[in-house]
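debug: dumping io for the single-chain case to check the tokenizer round-trip. Nothing else runs in this session.
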Amino acid sequence: MTAQTTVIPALAAAAPPAPPPSPPRLWGHVARRCVLAPIVVLTPLLAVAPSRDHRFNVYWHGGMFRDDPGAIVSHTIASGDAYLRLGNFRPLGRMLEKSLDLLAFTGTQQLGLPVNVTLRAVSIGAAVLLTLAVVLFAESVLTRGRLFGGAPSRVALLLPYAVAAGFVAAGQDSTTILFGGLYLTTAALVLTVAATACRLDRLRWWNGVLAVTAGAALAVFNEPAYFAVPLATAAVLIRGRFVLGLTGRELLTSAGVRFAGLLWAGFLPAFATVRWIIRGFCAQGGCYQGSDLIVDGRSVLLLPVRMVAWLPPLQWRAATAATPGDWLRGVAPVVALLLLGALAARTLMLLPKSGVPATRPLLGLAALGVVVLACGALLATLSVAVRSAMSGRELWEQGWRDSALTVPGGMLLVVALVLLAGRRATMSALAALVLLGVVSATANRAYAGTVAVQRAAQLDNRIAAVVGSFDRSRAGDARRCALLDEAIAANRGKPFLQRRYRDSLDVAARTLAGVPFCERAG
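debug: decoded output
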């Protein structure tokens, strides 16, 4: 009798779980979204005509400094006394502005593109730089160890879409339209200084020298740069309490707080000296209004107004106020949805694999978002120029220089609050941010369409086109002379603007082709 044996099949080996994406891959994913999301939202503005001082500065600075970029420094220093007497002393900011104008002019010369396109491309590049700086700032606050040693948090995955959605052409003074390269880059500098203060774990002697020098430099950069010092101070204090859990004594003796103190040591003497000199020159009025400050009872009321003026729905109204019909229809929203949706699809897959910061660090990040918002809003609240140019509903909707700080500050606050609401809210928030970006891109397209039919904008775009493709023939000279005549006629009774058209275009033409912009026979 034989015993029956049963063969038990071997259990199938369970498939090993898929390894999570490596930190470098995730950081690359975040960096690509920081670049691509702002480009999608801002591309509709690529052909918008230059306005205000852009109409002249890009030709003037580009022509002056194309062959000698180093002269930007000497030229700015030589003209410093005149600007100090006008109450508009910001030499380092002017050097940056001239460098960006030179970059746009060089792009025109090398690529044959109109100046309006290269000028907007420079602004879009600055928006990308700001988006990267916001992510760097947030991760510098939240990360306890080495910054790029681990994977980015879920905050970093959401921020590129959030910040990009805030880049709306909310009026002709918005940073997306006017001096975007200068002020968006300045905002990136402000956030980078604060991020640097957060990451210091040891204060060496050269860090101290750098801090004092940087503080003095920020005092003569431009108005938004002033807020780098208080923001850096708030960042190291809030991070120390909410993220690192330091005691009061540990916090006050930390490297970050001492670095911030040295920033103040360099900033305050330089700032006080410059403002004291300007006050002496401008006490009787007549100085540059854009740098005038006023503190009164109305400031208390204006501060919360400008702290909410960055919201995309409010900015959409300003961007589309002059647009006839239903501006949400057309090809633009479909294309923007496809592009942003494709970017977000991959991010959606990575969200469950990313870490969510704890409650206390998120509360600290939300508090810093409020600080950034308040710094930006304070810039507009105290400005005489804002009170002169805006009133009523415009104060709630129109963009200005403060938008460069209030947009990233507001979006930091939004992302932190979304993650505090719970994990389930994150995916819905990503979809909402994509839709915000789609509508912002569509609003920008509507603004561009409105500007394109304005006679002055058409003239400036035609001038940009003939400079970009400079024709040395007699027929080309005749076309340029006709455009110059048209510009002079359009500014009849404004000799200053007439002179600026003549001089700036002539400098550009002589640099590009060695001939005047308009060389009439006889």
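debug: round-trip ok. The chain has a mean pLDDT of 89.
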